[in-house]
Specification:
Elements: H1 10-28, E1 41-44, E2 48-54, H2 56-59, H3 62-89, E3 99-111, E4 115-125, E5 132-141, E6 146-148, H4 162-181, H5 186-192, E7 205-209, E8 219-224, E9 237-242, H6 252-257, H7 266-269
Parallel strand pairs: 2-3
Antiparallel strand pairs: 1-2, 3-4, 4-5, 5-6, 7-8, 8-9
């Protein structure tokens, strides 16, 4: 039997289409577009669709948000230029659309109501064998409204010095535990660790880990993207170094901010 239903008025028809769309979204498991957060910066054209997201806690701090957004926009512009140049040189790789890029800034911890540790997660799809991801970190000093390193927390951080040697040893010990959980080959594991050297600029992207003691940090977490300390299939790694293992090297400010233990759920939240 053929049934024809005629609708009087565009409003009724639009309403029915909206209902049908919502039903399809639920039934098929598609994400709801209405629930997606609005990007804080966008570059979208035929070459690239690239977005920047800041979490709400970052946006609540005007200076911090401005700093992240300025950096993020430079990243958007750089990749947009590279996408345009790539299309000009190899247009066949853009037959299925442009590149897809995304960067998310999120707060990992706030220590002593002053030091803000953030993760900067990047997603990149340039139509290669598979999309790529990267992770980096930012340490923000709220009292001075600027980015800093972890150097003020230690008496010395010279390349190949005692602090960095102890730190890289603890990082490798933590990564070996994680590797074992993923059934990685021991021989291959040692090869991946050759890139970890006792230098603050080469040991990995670091954050202050949260603690069971309010306002303090339980130690350092080092964040590694795919390919950094393992093959792509193993994904990201996080190494945790408890503050106690670095206690002999702490400066007065380090002694003040470190304490407590790593919260039970923190290792579950990190990949």
């Amino acid at each position: 039997m053929d049934i024809e239903v005629r609708y009087q008025g565009a409003n009724v028809q639009a309403g029915l289409l909206a209902i049908l769309s919502a039903v399809a979204t639920i039934a098929l498991g598609y994400p709801s577009l209405a629930a997606d957060p609005k990007p804080d910066a966008v570059v979208k054209n035929r070459n690239i669709d690239a977005r920047i997201f800041l979490d709400d806690r970052i946006k609540a701090d005007a200076a911090l948000a401005a700093d992240c957004l300025a950096e993020g926009k430079k990243w958007l512009d750089k990749n947009a230029s590279e996408a345009a140049a790539s299309r000009k040189q190899d247009p066949q790789f853009f037959r299925d659309g442009g590149w897809d890029f995304e960067r998310r800034y999120s707060i990992r911890s706030v220590v002593a109501d002053r030091y803000v540790s953030m993760l900067r997660d990047d997603y990149m799809d340039t139509h290669g064998a598979h999309p790529n991801s990267h992770v980096n970190t930012i340490l923000w000093d709220k009292s001075e409204n600027k980015r800093i390193s972890i150097r003020p927390f230690f008496t010395e951080t010279a390349d190949n010095g005692p602090t960095m040697k102890a730190m890289v040893k603890a990082v490798i010990a933590s990564l070996k535990i994680e590797k074992k959980k993923r059934d990685s080959s021991e021989t291959a594991t040692e090869e991946w660790f050759k890139g970890l050297t006792p230098s603050l600029l080469k040991i990995g992207a670091v954050t202050l880990a949260p603690s069971t003691e309010t306002g303090r940090s339980s130690g350092l977490t080092f964040h590694y993207p795919p390919y950094a300390v393992g093959p792509y299939a193993e994904g990201q790694y996080v190494a945790f170094v408890p503050w106690e293992s670095l206690k002999p090297f702490l400066a007065p400010e380090g002694t003040r901010i470190f304490g407590g233990a790593r919260p039970k759920g923190d290792s579950d939240e990190q990949p």
